[in-house]
Amino acid sequence: MRILRSAAAAVLLGTVAIAAPAAAANPIVTSIYTADPAPLVVGDTMYIYAGRDEAPSGTSNFRMREWHVLSSSDAATWTQHGARASIATFPWAGADAWASEVEPRNGRYYWYTSVNGNGPGWMNIGVAVGDSPLGPFTDAKGGPIISDSTPNSSALNIDPTVFVDDDGQAYLYWGGYWAPRAVRLASNMIDTVGSVVTPQGLTNFWEAPWMFKRNGLYYMMYAANDTSGCVTDSAYACQRYATATNPLGPWTHRGIVLGRVSSTTNHAGAVEFHGQWYLVYHTANAPGGGNFRRSVAVDRMYFNADGTIQRVTPTTAGPPPNPAPPAAQEAHHRAYAS
Ligand code: FUB
User: Which candidate, 79, 150, 200, 225, has a CA 20 to 30 Å from the CA of 318?
Assistant: First the structure.
């Protein structure tokens, strides 16, 4: 059974073609459905790691087996690199390639995933590792980092976001069903250190945390589905955010980054690229799209002078091209010429 599943996944991975760069517009990819985007900037390239929605039209369950990678040199034109990890990447798992995020450390790229293990319980956090942003990626731990049997784990162990602070300490945050969780990671990026804690102050947290730091302040963005300013129908969600002066909180809720989108789920990541900030999120806006056939979008995100975030206005045009500054391009060309 295991061999058959792996072989099928290998075929899937092998048949995904690398597409030519696609013109800027939201959604940024329409040849497949993509969801749960996690941006990562490496040098002059922005990568987006995203799950693939494969639910047939008219069905009402997630069908997700692969994680794909996109890249861009200007945040406007995107190249599809196909599936770079799948359920088969984790021999101990069998279904549900849900939200993921890649965190670099010491020249390696750690791809944290939500995936349904074959053991007791439902969702787990797994981690694969590769030597480049495009992989190849292999299971780094041989089992889940977090499972339902982890003491004080979330009610739903999904949606990992990993952050390495300036002092080298790494943190894993995750959670769903209104239950955010956090734990320190060892410097090997695959073992937890100490107890799982419950972050305080993430008002109306539902799922999909996204951690980052800007100007010495910690930011946690997350999906909420309350009807007290977020959405009018709690089947949908918005993106709220909170800030803290310590990576484990306590957090102070600051407001809404992104209102309701056309899909019931609302999952986003934020990143700075070539001096500008971007919000990467998903909607149901692609042709034939829906709650289980979502598509990734990119738009500019703006901070106020006091560090608060302006609410993002989703666009269909997407952001204008933001290539590397000329000096960086010259240095890049010189490096290649030498
Ligand atoms: O894509 C499956 C799940 O839906 C994700 O893990 C959640 O964040 C929501 O987007």
Answer: 225
